[in-house]
Amino acid sequence: KKKSQAIDRGLEEDSKKLRRECKILLLGSGESGKSTIVKQMKIIHQNGYSVDELRLYRHTIYKNVIDCAKALIGAMQQFDISPENPENIQHCEFIMQFTVDPDPNAHLDARCATAITAIWKDPCIPRVLDHSSEFYMMDSASYFFDEVHRITQDDYCPTEADVLRARTKTTGIYETRFQMGQLSIHMFDVGGQRSERKKWIHCFENVTSIIFCVALSEYDQVLLEASDQNRMMESLVLFDSVVNSRWFMRTSIILFLNKVDLFRQKLGKSPLSNYFPDYSG
């Protein structure tokens, strides 16, 4: 009888533990803001980033800065828009030929800051940005361009604000664990690009909730993987497949609409009805 009671107690403890465990799966297309949620949870619930952890993002941020600058210059060439300041022709050539040193201890060349700042201030840039829905550039580009002089300093250590805006492609599955009151939260971040989606299946068992992320600002943008396809349409197709999946019949699904500030900024210049003709609001 004692043995039976011990087994019952063990089962009850396991049951209580399971009730206190919450498994959350983050889904959404590439760049919908899934990894940013994980970073924010770390800042809020895990005492943020140590100095060493912040430094690990330095190379990623250097690469983001240069990739954004190259995307901008590439768009200038694509739409046949030349810099109005003749000096910026050389600055553009310098950036297009520049590669970030793979050494994690290397600094970003200060000449990059001079070149990027000058290009970003060129009077031709508003005309380039009129075409922003026709080429790919990170949402954080303007932030990094404005901060580039600080980022190229020799003693640069990324801030949490820099890390939140840094972009690395999520490949595979990342698990973050943290406590929220009595609850033990297990959050799974999975790659959003098309090539990553087949890996999601491994996360599906016993998931309590799904947070499905959609960047509202992507309504006029094209996919990184397929420049002829609208990103919002891709998100809608993916959301449909998740909601109607047999794996998620008993799972609560939370739709998280992200990047509302960018969405508001865009609407005046890029009407929603241009991309979704059924919309009449």
From TrEMBL:
<dbReference type="GO" id="GO:0005834">
    <property type="term" value="C:heterotrimeric G-protein complex"/>
</dbReference>
<feature type="binding site">
    <location>
        <position position="35"/>
    </location>
    <ligand>
        <name>Mg(2+)</name>
    </ligand>
</feature>
<feature type="binding site">
    <location>
        <begin position="31"/>
        <end position="36"/>
    </location>
    <ligand>
        <name>GTP</name>
    </ligand>
</feature>
<feature type="binding site">
    <location>
        <begin position="258"/>
        <end position="261"/>
    </location>
    <ligand>
        <name>GTP</name>
    </ligand>
</feature>
<dbReference type="InterPro" id="IPR027417">
    <property type="entry name" value="P-loop_NTPase"/>
</dbReference>
<feature type="binding site">
    <location>
        <begin position="139"/>
        <end position="140"/>
    </location>
    <ligand>
        <name>GTP</name>
    </ligand>
</feature>
<dbReference type="GO" id="GO:0046872">
    <property type="term" value="F:metal ion binding"/>
</dbReference>
<dbReference type="InterPro" id="IPR011025">
    <property type="entry name" value="GproteinA_insert"/>
</dbReference>
<feature type="binding site">
    <location>
        <position position="170"/>
    </location>
    <ligand>
        <name>Mg(2+)</name>
    </ligand>
</feature>
<dbReference type="GO" id="GO:0005737">
    <property type="term" value="C:cytoplasm"/>
</dbReference>
<dbReference type="GO" id="GO:0031683">
    <property type="term" value="F:G-protein beta/gamma-subunit complex binding"/>
</dbReference>
<dbReference type="GO" id="GO:0010255">
    <property type="term" value="P:glucose mediated signaling pathway"/>
</dbReference>
<dbReference type="InterPro" id="IPR001019">
    <property type="entry name" value="Gprotein_alpha_su"/>
</dbReference>
<comment type="similarity">
    <text>Belongs to the G-alpha family. G(q) subfamily.</text>
</comment>
<keyword id="KW-0342">GTP-binding</keyword>
<feature type="binding site">
    <location>
        <begin position="164"/>
        <end position="170"/>
    </location>
    <ligand>
        <name>GTP</name>
    </ligand>
</feature>
<dbReference type="GO" id="GO:0007189">
    <property type="term" value="P:adenylate cyclase-activating G protein-coupled receptor signaling pathway"/>
</dbReference>
<keyword id="KW-0519">Myristate</keyword>
<keyword id="KW-0547">Nucleotide-binding</keyword>
<dbReference type="GO" id="GO:0003924">
    <property type="term" value="F:GTPase activity"/>
</dbReference>
<dbReference type="GO" id="GO:0032502">
    <property type="term" value="P:developmental process"/>
</dbReference>
<keyword id="KW-0460">Magnesium</keyword>
<dbReference type="GO" id="GO:0005525">
    <property type="term" value="F:GTP binding"/>
</dbReference>
<dbReference type="Pfam" id="PF00503">
    <property type="entry name" value="G-alpha"/>
</dbReference>
<keyword id="KW-0807">Transducer</keyword>
<dbReference type="GO" id="GO:0001664">
    <property type="term" value="F:G protein-coupled receptor binding"/>
</dbReference>
<feature type="binding site">
    <location>
        <begin position="189"/>
        <end position="193"/>
    </location>
    <ligand>
        <name>GTP</name>
    </ligand>
</feature>
<protein>
    <submittedName>
        <fullName>G-protein alpha subunit</fullName>
    </submittedName>
</protein>
<keyword id="KW-0479">Metal-binding</keyword>
<keyword id="KW-0449">Lipoprotein</keyword>
<keyword id="KW-0564">Palmitate</keyword>
